[in-house]
Specification:
By secondary structure, the chain is mostly helical. The protein contains 6 helices and no strands. The longest helix is centred in the N-terminal third of the chain and has 22 residues.
């Protein structure tokens, strides 16, 4: 399955880091949309870097990256606000559930 230390670091980078970062970023920006766009980029960056570092494609992580891109685009181009970014994990979970 993998190195347990790597799994802990991955869990921290993709789960805990965005939550803690949001607490610091939100007061600095104008809207929830900007704050969520910034802090959800942390797990996206982690997925891309860790996939390159390990030379192994993280399929579920890449689904998350695609969902982030889609929901960010929907949020910005349609003026939907921060709701799509708040629900992008549901999109990934739904796709995984269908598979």
């Amino acid at each position: 399955m993998g190195n347990p230390a790597w799994q802990i670091i991955s869990l921290l980078a993709s789960g805990l880091a965005p939550v803690l970062s949001y607490l610091f970023v939100r007061p600095q920006v104008d809207s929830d949309l900007a704050a969520l766009a910034i802090v959800w980029f942390i797990p996206v960056l982690w997925t891309l870097i860790s996939s390159l570092w390990r030379r192994r494609l993280n399929v579920l992580g890449m689904l998350g990256v695609a969902a982030y891109g889609i929901t960010l685009g929907v949020s910005i181009f349609t003026g939907a606000g921060s709701l799509p970014l708040k629900l992008h994990h549901a999109l990934v979970a739904g796709l995984v559930g269908l598979v």
